[in-house]
Structure formats: structure tokens, C-alpha cells
Amino acid sequence: MVRRAVRRLRVTALALVCALTLAACAPLFPGEAEGPFDGDWLLVQAGWGEAQFTVAGAGITLVSDGESASGFSGCRQYAYAMTGEAEDFGFGDPLEPGPTADPYEDMLPCNGSLERIESRYLSVLLAAERAEVRGDELLLTAGNSYLFFKAFPPFPGPQLMGKQWVLNGYGDTWQDRWTTDVIGSPTLRFLSRDRFVGTLGCGGIAGTYRILGTEVFVTSLHRYGADGCLSAFSEQDQLLAQFLDGFRVIVVGDEHLVLAHRRLQLMYRALPAE
Predict the structure, then answer these.
(1) How many other C-beta atoms are found inside a 10 Å radius of the C-beta of residue 199?
(2) Residue 165 neighbours by CB under 8 Å, 6+ apart
(3) What single-letter DSSP state applies at residue 126?
(4) What is the pLDDT of residues 122-149, one digit of tens each?
(5) In 3-state terms, the chain is what percent helix, strand and coil (to 5)?
(6) What is the distance between the alpha carbons of residues 103 and 117, in angstroms, rounded to a whole number?
(7) Which letter does DSSP use for residue 28 in this model?
(8) HSE (CB half, 13 Å, CA atoms) of 80?
(9) Selection from 165, 168, 184 nearest residue 6 by Cα
(10) Distance, CA of 158 to CA of 273 (rounded, Å)
(11) pTM recorded for the entire structure
(12) How many Å apart are CA 267 and CA 2, to the nearest integer?
């Protein structure tokens, strides 16, 4: 029953991120420099010539601020300078993705299919001739190929505060590897707009964070142990501590929380109020 419930939660979360229209999210941020498609976007569909290629679960993203375009392309981070204006844009020199680009490189193996998807994605992206923004949707076209994106939802701060969340499961959306055999009861609590605490299978964490667009960046993270910790906790705790160093937050209903980074997801449920 628990496994079926988590599977339903996983499907719900993926549907929310990869398919639903996110009506509450505006793709152009007021007050910011507005380029051809400013915002944070997730690739949900793509056409390569006359055929489509599967992208769901690959975690391909595009972040644009009018001056640069960056994101995760399926295997690695990318970043390019942008040139021209909104109606006549292009891509210039490649840029360094930045220091927070790849904290989970060893945990996300890049197989042949992902490499092919990444190659196709970048070739269409860099050849894009037209951008259309309609509400929370973005369509980039290059000849008879296209990339279709949905906007990421904003950070749901008010829905997180005052609740304690307990880990239900975690996994990789692309490899379809999931576990509900969580060791212990790791928890997470957002105390304010810039501070959070949590427990691991063994010990705990405390940290501060800031929000940039839809991304949560941890500005400090302290992990502390506990006497008599068992070695069985170590692999899971290492994963959780690394994962919580930067993530996106999706709230599903009132009781479920998904933390997402690329293809990885942590799934939490809210504990009843005491």
C-alpha cells in the first residue's frame, strides 16, 4: 500500500512538473530585464525534424535573463551568452555554467539515449530562429524542429511554513529507480524565509537559504551527528545532505512535497499538526 501510494505521488508530481499548465506562474518577471523568453523553463516536448523525441523525466531546463541562456541539457550543465533583441536573438560564446552547476555528477549516469537527447536539444536550441511566449508556455522553433517548455512554478513559501515534512521516498525519474525503503524518518522544516532544519537517518542538518527565481540555493549547511549512529544510514544520509544543497520545491496538494533537482526527486509528506 505504501509503495502504491508513493507511486501515485510520483506520478502526480511528475505530471505537475512536466505536463500541467502552471497558470499561477508568469514566465516574464516584472521589473527584470525582459529578453525574448526571460524566465525558468522545463522542456516537456520536442520535435526533431518530422519526429518527436522523448524528453519527459530528463530534467532539461532553460533559464534566460535576456543576457544569457543556461540550464541542464540531460547530461551536463550548459551556458551561452545571448545576442540581439527579443525579435532577433541568437547565441554567442559559451559561458562557464557556474560553481553550483554539477554537485551530483557522479550520481547521474549519462547513457547513450541521454547523450543523443542532449545533442539534439542543443542543436535545436542553438539554431532557434523564433520564440513564442504564451502565458506559462514557451515554444522555440528552428526550421521544422521545435522545443516546447513550461514555466516552473514559483517558490511556495507560505505553504511550507509551520509544517514538518517526513521523507517518503526518493529516486531518479529518468532511470525509473525509486525506493520507499527509507531508513529512519528523515524530516525537514522551513522555519522562515531563509532558515531550515532537518533530521537525517542519523543526526541532522541546519542551514540558511536564499531564493533566486524558482531555485532554492543553500547559503550555509551544517550537518551534525549523533552518538551510536549505524553505518546503514551513511549512504542515504550522504545523498540527502548533498541533495539539500540546492533544489526546486513543488507542493502537491496540502500534504505532499517534492524537492527536485534535474532528474532526482525527494518525496515528503506533511506530519499531522501536534
Answers:
(1) 20
(2) 187, 188, 189, 257, 268, 269, 270, 271
(3) H
(4) 999 999 988 888 888 999 999 999 999 9
(5) 20, 40, 40
(6) 21
(7) S
(8) 16
(9) 168
(10) 16
(11) 0.69
(12) 13
